[in-house]
Description:
The structure is a single chain. The protein has 1 helix and 19 strands. It is mostly beta strands. The chain has a 10-stranded antiparallel beta sheet, covered by helices on one side. β9 and β10 form a beta hairpin. This is DUF4198 domain-containing protein. Keywords: Signal.
Amino acid sequence: MKNTAKLLLAASLLTAAGAASAGEFVTVEIKGRVQGLYDPDNVLGGQVTEGQLVTGEYKYDIHTPDQAVSPYSGGYHMPDATMKLVVGSLVFQSAAEAPFGMVSRAASVAAIGGESPPEFRVMSYTNQPLPNGATVERFEFEFRDSTGQQPATDALPSAAPNLHSFDYHSAFVYGELNGHSYSMRVEIESTYSDGMTSDLVISPGKSTFVSGQRFDVALVLPAGSQIAHATASLDGQPLPMSFPGSCNLAPPNLQNRPTIICPDAHLQLPEAAGQYRIHWEVELIDGTSIGHPVEWTFIE
């Protein structure tokens, strides 16, 4: 019953007029993989497969006022919020002309005897169609803690969710084309927002390079890490820098911090001048992963 009430609250807020915000936005970047694909009529044209890499982001104003009456749940109508998922060549995103990104949060529900766990959701029901005309009717990110601990309050977070605090973290998309439906669930494996600390150190960090400048990249991991493989991507597309592959392990150092060196990184990046956000991901032998983006600007 209470879970149904939360969804009704979300729907009503999507159609309500939102208050003006102070305009302090946080952008949360995510990486994950397709873990549940339903497309029996090939609406997506075979462009999405199980296990496929997915990148995305959602952005919202942290000063948006809470429109929910209950002290245990927050409802936020966000006309300036944006959401996006990139799967191969397909891009699922909120509509630029009316991006009704909406954030709803239910926290400390156990305090009032609620049977549903606390959760944090970002939802959009006004989205751009796919190139073939298929609709994107439902689009959401959800983080849920079955232990009832997180999120601790109904306030909007000012940074990306810590996945260790949530046992369920996924994105979901649903749509139709000529009466044929499709859906896709993405298991979120990492999140990032500016200001977060990371166990992965990337050198060089945020930098500006001039045309023709040569440089190598070093990925420095926590002491004792056992590396399985490492990859780099730009806008969800893999770059030709990986371990094993073009990158290699550096000799041991006194801090016992495993380090991957990717030589001549400048040769593997776009030649055009501009600002690029490269996402590095290192998977360890125990199955965990450490990801971190770095922003590089190239000038001619």
